[in-house]
Design a protein that fits this description.
By secondary structure, this protein is of the alpha/beta class. The chain contains 13 helices and eleven strands. The C terminus is likely disordered. Homodimer.
């Protein structure tokens, strides 16, 4: 059985849009895409009057090396969000198919499914925010085509052991595609599962340059999967997804200097995460701090609303996650630079001083 048998038949049969860049490459005088012959003001040689390569070769090669995959196993797009949307549209028929998620988790899986009119099957994480593989498999129905697993989890910060990922992907063979979201994996002790891609054609992995690589504003993300899945999604992807400035920013970040810089910052975040967890746990009004393998800590408060207000009054914005199951007393606090983290601690420990009150 091919993994594409899980995808929508009408997508497999779709005649995709063929852009000018797809149909022809090379040449010196480009008159095939109705572009302007003049660069825009302030372009400085960036070439923004021309459409970009749909999958820029230099960027695809750099990302393939970074993630240890073959270039045909990689699709680069506008953040992980685009890959999530493409997967749902390719595999889920409106009003008939479903995805499966484990709340609390990243909200875009469900948003993309509901836009597609696909059902969302929810199997909550355990009370300690670990994944219950048996419960996931028990909830699986023939309608479920995609199972999303976020590790490290957002917003809890917990990880799914590699053994559980392997058990899931084996059990889902021929039934559903397992999509592992590794947006925060660079901050975790346990590494990526991308090395399993050659063993399981029903495994896909989401990666992003938004977090550890400091490129949230550039919107660069990847799907790593079986080449047939990558080729299928390219059929429904917009023809020019990546702006040239974003591609240039990504290539700089992935250069030798850029990688050294990113690794240094990851080390700071990991050290600050440990320090902040200990410091936050000792503050009055803090019930507990969830263990995290991401670049954030989720903190339980006696009064999370009051804590949010104290931080906001001090000019600090954190994420209110009280709407998520099991987190009705919690705020999610991103690990910042050391001086920024000190401001958080000061605002929570000494709210009057943080607001400038004598």
């Amino acid at each position: 059985m091919s993994v594409l048998d899980l995808a929508r038949a009408e997508i497999r049969a779709l005649q995709p849009y063929s852009s000018a860049r797809m149909e022809a490459s090379g040449g010196e005088l480009l008159l095939n895409a109705n572009e302007s012959a003049w660069a825009p003001t302030g372009d400085n040689g960036a070439g923004c009057n021309r459409y970009p390569d749909p999958q820029p070769a230099a960027l695809v090669d750099a990302l393939a090396r970074l993630y240890g995959v073959r270039r045909e196993q990689l699709l680069v797009g506008r953040g992980s969000d685009e890959a999530i949307d493409l997967l749902v549209r390719a595999f889920c028929r409106a009003g008939r198919d479903a995805i499966l998620v484990q709340p609390p988790t990243f909200g875009m899986y469900a948003v993309c499914a509901r836009i597609q009119d696909a059902a969302v099957v929810e199997v909550p994480l355990r009370h300690d925010f670990t994944l219950d593989v048996d419960a996931v498999l028990a909830a699986l129905t023939p309608a479920v085509k995609l199972v999303f697993v976020c590790t490290p989890n957002n917003p809890a910060g917990s990880v799914v052991p590699r053994a559980d990922i392997e058990r899931l992907v084996r059990a889902l063979d021929g039934r559903a595609l397992l999509v592992v979201d590794e947006a925060y994996v660079e901050f975790a002790d346990e590494g990526s599962v991308t090395d399993l891609l050659d063993r399981y054609d029903n495994l896909a992995v989401l990666r992003t340059l938004s977090k550890a690589w400091a490129l949230a504003g550039a919107r660069i993300g990847c799907l790593l999967a079986h080449p047939e899945v990558i080729a299928l999604l390219r059929r429904i992807m917009p023809p020019y997804p990546l702006p040239l400035p974003s591609v240039d920013a990504a290539l700089l970040a992935l250069s030798g200097w850029g990688q050294a810089n990113a690794l240094a910052h990851i080390g700071v975040v990991r050290a600050e995460r440990a320090r902040m967890r200990a410091s936050l746990a000792g503050l009055p009004g803090v019930r507990g701090v969830l263990p995290s393998q991401a670049n954030f800590l989720t903190v339980r408060f006696d009064d999370a609303g009051a804590a949010y207000s104290r931080l906001f009054d001090a000019g600090i914005v954190v994420r209110d996650v009280r709407r998520y199951p099991g987190l009705d007393d919690a705020l999610r606090i991103t690990i910042g630079a050391p001086a920024e983290n000190e401001r958080v601690l000061a605002a929570l420990a000494f709210p009057a001083q943080a607001r400038g009150v004598a």
